[in-house]
Amino acid sequence: MIPIELNKALHGVVDLDNSLFNEHVLGITTNSKEVGPGFIFIAISGSKFDGNNFIDEALDNGAICAISDSNGIEHSNKILKVKNARESLGKISANFYNNPQDKIKLIGVTGTNGKTSTTLILKSILESHGKKVLQIGTLGIIPNIVNEDFGLTTPDSINIFKVLSLAVEQKYDFAILEVSSHALSQKRIDNLRFDFAGFTNLTLDHLDYHGTIDNYFNEKKKLFGLVKDSGSSLILGDSSYGKDICNEYPNTHNISLNSNETDFYCSDFILDHKGVSATFNFEGTSIDISSKLVGKYNLENIILAASIAFKIGVDINAIRDGIASCKSIPGRYEVISNKGPAVIISDYGHTPDAYTNVLKSLRDIYDDKNIKVLFGAGGNRDKSKRPEMAKAVEDFATQCYLAPDNPRFDDINDINSQVMEGFSKEICMVFDDREAGLIAALTDLTGSDVLVIFGKGNEEYQEISGKKLYYSDRKIIEEFYES
């Protein structure tokens, strides 16, 4: 990174004292321990730590200046006061990395479920159209041009602009971002302007952070206020939430699987265990598609991705080929190859709605088999959805195995007790160890069963008491049938 003058890094953020005007910036950070000579330190007040308590440490480590919005901090030639530190962090990051967001096409997708699938399908379509595409989301950076795992669906402001800067250097045409409600709430993407945006759905999740479903929705909606005047938003509008977005924001297009009175709709579809086939109608243009992705919920992801691609200007053949080329989504409805008697499916789903979508699809496909489910609720997350997860599973399963997902700092017995409140039938075995629960489920399987394992997907760890411990459902399944 080429150093830039401090006045350029802080352009649009704060007026500088003349003594600092020509200082050169070598880095920016919100972590005082990362500060070195030539750095700007931005003091962010978070849920665990308040960066304002570490300003002196940052200055001692060589920071040119610190940025703060705390009422308890006085402005000086080294401590620069701003109205909102998170907002300033985004502007400084954009300036430091030479505003890469202006040199690449940006697509943002938000919603509770389906973001990862939609962005991967769209990436495949754009690549079939000959474009170079970067994806930023739950699965990390694809391809990982930074060789880092940020551990967030949407990285923080500094890392977003760092990644986009590298993407511009490497001549990527598009960057597709999964946009989380947390990122919108914390102003991580306020300095981005999107060429296209998409909305999947909104269901119960993250109320531990947002408090109410209305607050959650209001954060999600902010993405559509960040779309360029020349851009477009594509909305799955069969829900009231989708309709509200269409009514509130300009340049939105409603997509429907239920109605042919919208510009983008599905006139016919077939769902089976081999995948989906459908006819899409886009502003008078008809496209026949076929995909190995299973279930109606994946059909929604496909039509959203295809609609965005159509508005971008991708030709019909590339849309069709890109959909066909995306044969699976890592950790989403993946059939696990095994030597046992039953079908085993792994899915990342961790909300009641995600459970229902997968299990309803399975019931339609395997109507002659028993559905068994292993699942668990995450710790230090929305407690209100825990009993609702049980209710969703109970509607479809003949047997359940409740076992830890990522307990984090919560007591697993408390988590399990809250989940169990949602069951009205005695169909669930409870475990405080995920491996023990999975082995019990595998031991009980017959050729008449389908086992669905929710929560981990392709993750290979569990978060327990502040530590990330190696754990793999797939490895346990493999070893079980080899022993």
For the terminal residues, how far apart are their CA atoms? Answer: 52 Å
Tell me the structural class: alpha/beta
Q: Overall mean pLDDT score?
A: 94
**Radius of gyration over alpha carbons?**
24 Å
Give the strand line-up of the largest sheet: 9-8-10-7-11-12-13-14-15-16
The CATH class label of the largest domain is: Alpha Beta
Q: State the helicity in percent bands.
A: 25-40%
The poorly predicted ranges are none
Question: Can you identify the CATH superfamily of the largest domain?
Answer: Mur-like, catalytic domain
Q: How many β-strand runs?
A: 24
What is the total domain count? Answer: 3
Mass-distribution shape: globular
- Per CATH, what is the topology of the largest domain? UDP-N-acetylmuramoyl-L-alanine:D-glutamate ligase
Write a brief structural summary.
This protein is 32% helix and 24% strand. With 483 residues, the chain is of the alpha/beta class.
How does this structure look, described?
The protein has 483 residues and is an alpha/beta fold. It has 3 domains: 4-96, MurE/MurF, N-terminal domain (Udp-n-acetylmuramoylalanyl-d-glutamate--2,6- Diaminopimelate Ligase, Chain: A, domain 1); 100-325, UDP-N-acetylmuramoyl-L-alanine:D-glutamate ligase (3-Layer(aba) Sandwich); 334-482, Mur ligase, C-terminal domain (Protein-Tyrosine Phosphatase, Chain A, Alpha-Beta Complex), CATH 3.90.190.20. It contains 16 helices and 24 strands. It has helices at residues 6-9, 55-60, 85-96, 115-128, 157-169, 181-185, 207-210, 213-221, 240-248, 296-312, 316-325, 352-365, 386-394, 412-420, 434-444, 473-482, and strands at residues 4-5, 24-25, 27-29, 39-42, 65-68, 79-81, 105-110, 133-137, 140-142, 174-178, 194-199, 227-236, 252-256, 264-272, 275-282, 285-291, 334-335, 343-347, 370-375, 399-402, 428-430, 449-454, 461-464, 467-470. A 10-stranded mixed β-sheet has the order 9-8-10-7-11-12-13-14-15-16, with helices on both faces. Helix 4 (115-128) crosses helix 10 and helix 15 crosses helix 16 (473-482). It is globular, with a radius of gyration of 24 Å.
